[in-house]
Fold each of these.
Amino acid sequence: MILNKSIKTYGLIILAAFLFGACGSSSVVSDVEHDWRTSEIDPLSSVYVMDNAERIYVVNGLSVLAINGNTGEVDNRMNESFWDNIIRNSATEIGSFTFESSRAMSDTYNMNPLHDSGIILLYDHRFDLETITALDPASGGVLWTNDQLNFSMAKYSGLIQEAGARVGRALGNMIGGTHEEESAEERREREVLFMSNLAYEIPGENKMFFKASNKLVMIDLEDGSVIAEFEGFNGPGIAGMQRTDDGGYLVLSAGRDISNLELSSSYSLAHIDADGELLWMSDHSGRHTSNLMLFDNYVVVDGQPTEVFDLNSGDKISENDIRRRSMFSNTLHHVVYHNDNLYVAADMYGQVGRVSESRLIRHHIPTGEVTDFVETTRNTYFTGLQVHNGMLLVSGHGNAIHGRNSSGAIMALDPDTGAEIWISEAFSTAGNNYTGEPSVSAAVIDNGVIYVSDTGTLYKIDASSGETLAKVDHSALETGRMMGLHEVNGNLVVVSRNGVSAFSKNDLSNVYTSKTEGMDSYTINGSFAGLYNGGTRAVSVNLNDGTVGPHIRHGSGGLLSGPPNRYFGNLDGAAVFNNDASKVITIDSDGRIHAHTLR
């Protein structure tokens, strides 16, 4: 049944042992004092920063803490009931496997944050009872509970006998079988990956799609009621959703990956109209399923193969099979559409041994014909693919780009024949041959001019001829290796590991250069950039004038050092900034959550 509740806040418990706990001394000091910090949280917890860093949820074993992002106080704590705890200490058998309840049931809660509505979904499973609880973002109280949507255990325990002959121990182990050992971290990672695909929020509508067992369900987020159900929607989760021009929905099921609890006999793509009526449902391959894209009346499922369906009928039109795995990323290629053609650049950079080759192809959708547009080769990294003024612009580095492993370029190709129209001068990408990092940025195009950066130089290139109009050596500014190029308020901003530099689009003159301390990741929020390096450092930079905020320093280690400080959720990168990068929430290498005001 669905239990509709008024917002109910469980007993308010402020835990002095959790908050502002005693901490060991550190050899590094931040430029400003923290606003607050917690004591260490348990490894393998999930931490979600919500509501523009105003609210933080921590799944700490079988407790859920709602933390005020401004004060660090625990506004609410939900604990498992005594009776549930007794049940979890029993045992059972599923098929031919024996399970301890602590393994066959949740030994920690799982969560999905719905950022558009601000709701947190809390998942719990125990034998044949699986419960979804929606938490209110402001109070941490319960909005509604639904125990009628089987989402994991009921489904996969039923498949265990069939799977035993095919994948045997792998599946039994994934759902808690005691016949084969698996580390707590590995099992937790599998659970988190699986649960993260169950819910897909519909932005602006206060609704979500939810992948229940063998069906897709549309749910009202206000009260948890079921709006519509679509039987036979197969697959372990939801890989993506697209809105159609008439207000309808395209929903794609997740694909097959045994290691991530993704096992199914078939996989679905559904077209649902704005009134919630099913127009059609088709099968897709389910192999390495990634993005869902809509071009004109073509629905593209990006996987291996990449499949194209007719929007009106759901019929498969054609497919290509060039997608390959990489040691660096599961986002392996760039896809653009132009005049009934898909153009796909698939990377294989940095691989060794007997591996597939990098390819840039044209896939003619009506016929399915696939044409190679560059010489197939290993050791190529594509960083950009777009159509401009009737030309296919390709940026990157490696053999397929400029014929040499250590150089990059941007080149213009005829989109019909693949013939080279022009190629830029060789860019410098030396020293980055086997990392998969973007040694050549994606291009910024404005008024017939292309701006692109390599590891140390910013180029201004004529889009019609490929001629270099101007260039500037930004490596001389000592900001380190380039991480990205962006246009911000009329300037070109190069974000690098040790600083941020802005240049005039007119003559590439330097507007400002701001120094930072060894960052490896960043986000851009409007006119501000938030830069961070694992759990060690974070800083904000005003991209209008280059003003650098205070550096937050947590010392060595950090998230990337691995166990015992391994966390899940949107703090798995160890830093989340609010919308204008005026505040940052971090986790240090000792497992403490910090909040700092940056300006």
Note: The mean pLDDT is 78.
Amino acid sequence: MIRHFTIKNINDVKTFNELSLKLNSLGEVAHIKVKDNAVEFDSIDIMGIVEIVEAIDPALKIQEIVDEEEIDLKKESEPKEYFFLFENISKDEMEQVLTVLSSYSSYTNVSLNRQNKLLKLTTNDHHVLARLKRIVAKIGPNISIINYNRPFQGEDFFNRTFSRYFIMVLVGALAFGIAVVTRREPTIITRIAWLVTLAVLLSSMLKTAWIDIKRKRYFTEDNLMILSGFLGWAFGFYFEMVLVVIIYLASKELLINLGTWIINDIDRKLESIEYGNLRTQQGVVRVPLSSIDIDDIVVVHENEAINFDSELVDAKAFVNSYAVDGDDSDKLINAGDPIRAGCTNLQGTIQVRVKKIYQSSALNLVASRATSYALSESKMFKFMQLFAKGYTITLIVLAALMIVFGGGFRLIDEAYVYIGIILLSISSNATYVQAISYSSLGVVGNALVKNIVIKNTNSIYRLHSCNVIIYDRIDDQPVSLDELELIEYLHSLNKILIIFNDGPQDLIAGKYQVRNNYTTEEKLQVITDYQKHNAVCYIGDSTKDIVMLQSANVGIARGGILAKRVIRNSDIVLKDSSKQTMENAFLVSKRYRHVIYQYGFLGLVGVVAIFIMAVANIIPWVLAVAIDVIISGAVILINKRIVNLS
């Protein structure tokens, strides 16, 4: 069962970026959300992730979120004693709760103090509170239950946290005052005062820097800024040193908030497919799909997807199962008939009884895989990583040469030392790597809302550049008016359009090429021939199309979510066969490429411009860092275009 976790107190931007990107690359992680200095995500298996997080930063702690409560993880799941208090519950209802809990093998030592309405049990199930709330909601909707904990005992929170903070602020302010007062006739006291001021400003970063150094990560963003700050102090650039560090500290919060803003936008986009209409005794309420349980009644409106394996409650309904099995025909189902997750309700409002929870539905598994795998196979992401690494190394080497020869050996004018410190301050390029993750999550989330499942962002990036489209019609199906509109749209893209027709009657070639009743070998040969000089997009729908989906530059599967081999061997999955969904796929691809080009160009031009101005010694240290922060923010904001694509 998919569980929800959080990692809090990530105050280091480099750690934050590394953790975010690593989680995005893991197959078992989905639905990543960034909130303030925390990351939340869904996962089935957590122990491997715990080891990865500990390797990134041993100080980080993963907690599980159960019914909005945060629970510390244990490496070994040992039975634990739990206490729960009931409110608004009768004696008969307490007996019903006790009877239901006694039927679960995972709950032992179950006892109920009826006078105090206190429930006690032993279990290793961390989801016990969430399950109890679902149980009591069915027994009595007005019953409330809370987790009862022993009184908190520990040190005084103010003394442990705020007193240290205020002491450091006081020391820093005192040191800064001494440094400013004695600046006209500087002594050793003046230099020490500036050093203390710098140390106080960098105090939070120094801790993470030491952890990075122990892990042999020497050139992180924080480490480079710390080094440039101390070099600024060593060579007497005191006021600029303080301003630069303050700008940097403020920019860390700014960039995290901008990233959170974009991630929250993606969450709002996905809300429509993550929530469902649950029928309760009080009426229909909109709740997260993950909170809907077996035998619950869900209301599905016209043209909405049915997100659960379920059975029909109403007398009859018309559904389309194209997204599940590739069958584009409308089906009449009667009360009690089973419905697969992923089918679409075609007429009116219906009610279905849930038979499998959302986490186990094929539709959700495909969507979760998309959000997990989208980043890991992106060539653009790998390119940006390589670019960032090369850029950082180049600037560090140049900065070292200027500082060593200009300051250490005194062979060149000391102005070169100043330039070297500037280069060191702007040498980190982590923002551009982080930006690719925002755009990737944005394009995947936006596509999911439009019934498009993207297996990896490299495929949606390449789709727009494919100048040959091969459309393989559904076998043995007559040509419908909707399909003719789809074919006309594909033809309007001004690309070479080839239609493979295996229908009951031959099609006559006109504005586009038609291949009637080709064998798999003949279809594959057509793809191979065109690939000699073109990029080919192949649109198929069944298991016999797998070899073509594999061979094409971009393979698009229409429907058949339960056909795992088709899903596994395609790049993009369409949950319906409409013209609108196909049009959305090409539109998202076009916008995604434009966003990549825009922030790639802005980032490249920006860093080169700062580099040239720094080397030419025409901008001060403070301005160089400020411009670098502005460019970083702009690079992240550009990604909102892909999130806001309508």
Note: The radius of gyration is 30 Å.
